[in-house]
Structure formats: C-alpha cells, structure tokens
Amino acid sequence: MPIELTSDASRVRSAGLVVALVPEGGDVVEPARRAYGAAGLTGKLGDDLLVASPDGSAVLVVGLGPTDVLEPGVVRRALAGIAPRLLGYDTVGIALTEDSGDAREVVAAAAEGILLGAHRFDRFMTTKGGRELGRVLLGVRPDVDGALESALEFGIASGQAGIEARDLADTPANHCTPEHLAVHAESLAGIAGLEVEVWREDDLVRERCGGILGIGQGSANPPRLMLVTYRGAGDEPPVALAGKGITFDAGGTSVKHDPHLEWMKGDMSGGAAVLAAMRAVARLAPPVNVVAAVPCADNLTGPTAIKPGDVLTLRSGRTCEIVDTDYEGRVVLADALDVLRERSPSAILIAATLWGGGEALGEEISPLIGNDSALVEEVLRAATAAGEPAWQLPLWPSYRRELTSTVADLKNKPSDKGAIISAALFLGEFTGEVPWAYLDLGDTAWAGERQGLGGTVATGVPARTILRFVLGRATAG
From CA 228, how far away is CA 185, in angstroms rounded? Predict the structure, then answer.
C-alpha cells in the first residue's frame, strides 16, 4: 500500500509533490506564498494551487476552510478533492504534524480521502488513465505506541471498503448478476476469519424463501442469498448486518418510468456495502462476532414475473400481498431478516435503497430509523465519524396501518405518505425481539462526484459506517 507514516519532516519536504494544508487565513509555505496571494486564494475549502519549486519539485497548497484544528472530516474531504492531482508523482509528502485534533482520526481520514478521491472505476475502459498513485508520506509526530500505525491500517481498510462497495455498485448489471455477487461473496471465504454460505435455487426452496424466489422469478438470472460470518469473540451473540442486493431493478411488472434506469444497476448498494465491510472487518480482526445476509435478485418483467395482487409466503410463514412489484427490496429483506433473527444477534443494522427522491435530506444525508435509541445513537456516531452522515427519522407506530392488506398478513406497498417510515415498519415485522436500525440509501448511494469522492457515480455509502459500527461494538464489549 503506497501510504505510509513518517516522523522525519525532511522526507515530507523532499517529496516530488508537497501538499500544504492551509486553514482559511493561514500562512502559506514558500515558494507558494506569493502565487497563492496573487491568485486571490484565502484557504477556503476547495481552494488549491499548484506551484513549481526551483529545484524541480512542486507544492500543492490546499485550503481547509475556517478551522483551527485538523478536523478529520475536513482533512478527508480536502484530500479526496485533490487526490487525482497526486497521481503520477513518485512521492507525495503531506504534513499532519499540527498538535491539534485527534491525530489518530486525522491519519485515518487522510488515508480514506486519498484512496477514495484517487480511485477511478475504469474496468470497462479500453484506454486507462495511465497514472498511478505513488508513495504518499504522511508526516506525523513520533508514533511511540503504534496508535498512529493502527489508525493508518484502519484508514486504508476503510478506504478500500468504500472502493470495493463503489466498484460493485458501478458494475453493469449484465456483469454483476446475482450469481456474480454470490461468487464475489464466496471469494471472501479465503480471508482468515470469514465463513461464507450461498443459498442457490434449491437451497432457497428448501429454506422456504418465498420472498427472494418470488422477486427473482421474472429473470433468467436466478436469485441468491449470501451469508457471511466473522467469528472473533467466542460464543458472544453476533451483531447482524443485512444489505439489499437487487442487482437490477426495472420495477418488475410494475415497470419503472424513470428515464435513467441505468442507475438501477446500483440497487444492490446496500448489499455491496455489507460485503465490503465484512472484508475490512476480517482484515482488522476485532474481538466481535458478525453475521451478514445479502439477499440478491434481478427484479425484471416477463412471462414468469410476479404480478400486482399476487400473494407470496415469506420464510417466516407470513403472507405478503404484492401491491406493487417495484417495492421488492423489503420483500427479499424479509426473508434475510428471518434468517438473521434465528442467529439470535445482539442487534441488526440494515442498509437498503428502499426509497429516494431527495425531498427531505438530499443526496448526502441518509435517513436512519430504528426501534432502539441506544442502537440508533451508535449508528449515528459511526456515520458522522465516517463522513457518511445520517439523520434519525421517527418510527411512527400508527403508520403500521399502511401495511394492512385485505387478502394477506401485510402488503408491500404503503401510500406514498411516510413511505420511508412504513418501509422501516415492514422490516421490523421480521426482526422478532432483536434491536434493529435501518439506513436508507435511496439518495445517498449515488452522486459520488458531487460529494467530493472522485469521478464515479456510486458513493460506497455506508460501507465505512458499517465498519465503524462493528468496531465500536467490539470496543464496547
């Protein structure tokens, strides 16, 4: 990995490219001071100027905005924004030695920002960019107890989890089928500490997963359920993760009328984030048990697809009227949640693209709903630390009436009023007595280029939040 720490300031200063982080109104290093002032820059977040040095090296001055400390979120975003400009240099030096802020969090955020910002999804391009990220030296104080090295290891694992989730979501649906995602999950079994089980058609039939089978029956690509387990804490109850894995969502028989259906290749963003987080968990080996479930299907139309008005029998034994086949994510998750419930987890965190529109929170803040205030607070803290902010919405019990069906135990489509809340209430029907929280990614799984994360569409949200949440559980234990 090309990112490393050094307490030798001369190594940072002698790099081929020196990145100088400058708060608004702060001093600018020579030889960039005069050029920076002449350009009218003041250190606002987003200000940057590349100045050649007489010795042939270069200085890139990067504004941090109005801050007196190296705040991790600001460092992450600033470095992500300029990361493409780091490509092609043999060495890059970035001083993080200021005696302010939490040095560990700053180091982790710097690694995340560099990796996320420099990454490009070019798998299907015949002509690649050609320039690579060279060695990046992060200048820090002497790391006497190894805490900063541990922070760097975490930051790299977290950044790579975000990249993995983004790449999976950006992969076209003709390449990322349910079976492809299942094979990707199976590849995790080669990582120490991870166990992977994939339920294919016969397994899903045997396990009575009527929701997953029903949603997937209109596609030539059959559905899957992936179960990934990490064991790091003996017989302690696991924390459970569930991620929606709809590899393409055309709406089924209730065909979508969205002119941008190409985005629907990423309707498995929740599942992608869960799988990516599980890889990072195994890499960091925390003392906690984790079990993850990713139900996966194509939601297409065709002669064998389910129809509005059909009734499916879910794994729990409950029946569900399919009022609208475009409300498929909660149906496949119902089966996955029933599987997780049987594992007696301490909590369940659900990540899914069940709703969107951006009217309330926009494209940077994920709605969060749960039935346990302490769990919700845990997730909120993890999301804030990851730079993937969330905001709690109420779990409003009276909206349960929106799930009432006249022909089955419940229906999959409520009215459009309170739709995210009723989606959460639907999921809660299948968790038993387990505390749960649900992050909706309908707006935040996309627009990575507008969130300062580089030029890809997918954001990787909430892979880094999930990782921090799991590690927080290990610390609390």
Answer: 8
What residue type is assigned to position 57 of the chain? S
Nearest Cα neighbor of 357 from 258, 456, 466, 438 is: 258
Distance in angstroms (rounded) separating the CA atoms of residues 77 and 287: 30
pTM (2 d.p.)? 0.96
Domains of the chain, with CATH numbers?
A: 3-140 (3.40.220.10), 161-476 (3.40.630.10)
% helix, strand, coil for the chain, step of 5: 35, 20, 45
At residue 62, the 3 state secondary structure works out as strand
Q: Do the bridges between strand 3-6 and strand 135-139 make them parallel or antiparallel, or are there none, so unpaired?
A: parallel
The CA distance from 139 to 27, in Å, is 18
In the DSSP assignment, the letter for residue 238 is P
467, with CB counted inside 10 A (0-12, 13-18, 19+), is buried
d(CA 67, CA 25): 10
Q: Tens place of pLDDT for every residue, the chain, 477 residues?
A: 689 999 999 999 999 999 999 988 888 877 778 888 888 888 888 889 999 877 777 999 999 999 877 889 999 999 999 999 999 999 999 999 765 568 999 999 999 999 999 998 888 998 877 788 999 999 999 988 899 999 999 999 999 999 999 999 999 999 999 999 999 999 999 898 899 999 999 999 999 999 999 999 999 999 999 999 999 999 999 999 999 999 999 999 999 987 778 889 999 999 999 999 999 999 999 999 999 999 999 999 989 999 999 999 999 999 999 999 999 999 999 999 999 999 999 999 999 999 876 667 888 999 999 999 999 999 999 999 999 999 999 999 999 999 999 999 999 998 767 789 999 999 999 999 999 999 999 999 987 555 566 555 799 999 999 999 999 998 776
Residue 383 CA to chain centroid, in angstroms?
A: 10
Candidate list 13, 256, 343, 400, residue with the active-site label:
256
Write the single-letter amino acid at 39.
A
Catalytic residue among 330, 411, 468, 473: 330
Nearest alpha carbon to residue 50 among 32, 26, 23, 75: 32
- For the question of residue 330 being annotated catalytic, the response is yes
Q: Is the dihedral of CA 399, 403, 409, 412 positive or negative?
A: negative
Q: Yes or no: say if 67 and 45 are a contact pair by the CB < 8 Å rule.
A: no
Rounded distance, CA 369 to CA 439, Å? 7
Q: Are 155 and 106 in contact (CB under 8 A)?
A: no
Q: Which residue has the tokens 């459970």?
A: 240
